[in-house]
């Protein structure tokens, strides 16, 4: 087998042109010449490899079937699949077209705004949502959970009084001979088996103890309003009253 034929197999297996050049001790320009002159079906096979890689990472057989009906070129199909996998147009372009970052940083985003590419990305996303059984009302339910989250659902807190005891064990008195009292506070997490953890964004140990962070209620409410407006525009009977529309009595 000739050197360029062995290199073609490496390319189809996912090796970059730079790594191929190092392996066979030739320049990158030589490898590019092999690619343009001898690897006629190499691009198509690499596209199939990318599709298989995506399919193995996340079951998307229906989505890939949708893409197979597309009029995009093989490389454009591979770009769509890579973009859906990593959500990065520049890196997706590098992975498929095997170019430098400088080139991909310009051409990747430019390819992303191509109408045909956008249509296929949207079609694939819808196909994936259909496979997952996720609809707008499922997302709305998550938004409602976040919008109604309250820190009191996850912690108990309160206060108690404690006498000021001196080192000798005696109760310290104030200027009027009354016992000095400290007011202490306490905070305690509720049992995780008794709470809904979905609104919790993170739990970590801070400098002063555990820190619980919930998702932003205001952002969730804004998203809900937008989603409800969208449903209202779709002839769904939803009545939305914004704060500025309330009367003076708050009704």
SSE string: HHHHHHHHHHEEEEH
pLDDT under 50 segments (min length 5)? 54-62, 235-251
What is the averaged pLDDT score?
75
Summarize the main sheet: 2 strands, antiparallel
- What gap, in angstroms, lies between the N and C termini? 83 Å
What is the radius of gyration computed over CA atoms, rounded to a whole number of angstroms?
Answer: 31 Å
Q: Could you explain the architecture of this structure?
A:
The model is unreliable at 54-62 and 235-251 (pLDDT under 50). The protein folds into 3 domains: 41-132, no CATH class; 135-149 and 198-251, no CATH class; 155-189, no CATH class. Strands 1-2 form a two-stranded antiparallel sheet. It is elongated and about 100 Å long. 53% of the residues lie in helices and 12% in strands. Strand 3 (200-206) and strand 4 form a beta hairpin. The protein is built from 11 helices and 4 strands. With 251 residues, the chain is of the alpha+beta class.
Briefly summarize what is shown.
The chain has 251 residues and is α+β, with helices and mostly antiparallel strands.
Features:
single chain; alpha+beta; 3 domains; two-stranded antiparallel ribbon; 11 helices; elongated; disordered C terminus
């Amino acid at each position: 087998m000739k050197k360029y034929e062995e290199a073609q197999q490496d390319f189809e297996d996912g090796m970059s042109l730079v790594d191929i050049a190092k392996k066979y001790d030739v320049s990158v320009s030589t490898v590019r010449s092999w690619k343009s002159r001898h690897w006629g079906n190499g691009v198509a096979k690499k596209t199939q490899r990318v599709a298989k890689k995506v399919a193995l990472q996340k079951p998307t057989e229906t989505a890939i079937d949708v893409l197979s009906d597309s009029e995009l070129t093989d490389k454009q199909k591979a770009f769509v699949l890579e973009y859906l996998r990593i959500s990065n147009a520049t890196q997706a372009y590098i992975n498929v077209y095997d170019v430098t970052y400088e080139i991909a940083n310009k051409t990747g985003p430019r390819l992303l705004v191509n109408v045909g590419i956008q249509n296929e990305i949207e079609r694939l996303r819808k196909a994936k949502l259909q496979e997952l059984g996720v609809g707008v009302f499922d997302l709305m339910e998550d938004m409602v959970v976040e919008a109604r989250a309250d820190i009191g659902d996850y912690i108990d807190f309160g206060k108690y009084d404690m006498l000021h005891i001196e080192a000798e064990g005696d109760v310290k008195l104030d200027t009027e001979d009354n016992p000095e009292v400290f007011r202490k506070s306490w905070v305690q997490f509720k049992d995780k088996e008794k709470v809904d953890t979905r609104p919790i964004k993170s739990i970590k140990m801070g400098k002063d103890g555990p820190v619980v962070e919930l998702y932003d209620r205001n952002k969730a409410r804004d998203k809900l309003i937008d989603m409800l407006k969208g449903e209202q525009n779709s002839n769904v009977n939803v009545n939305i009253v914004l704060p500025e529309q309330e009367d003076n009595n708050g009704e």
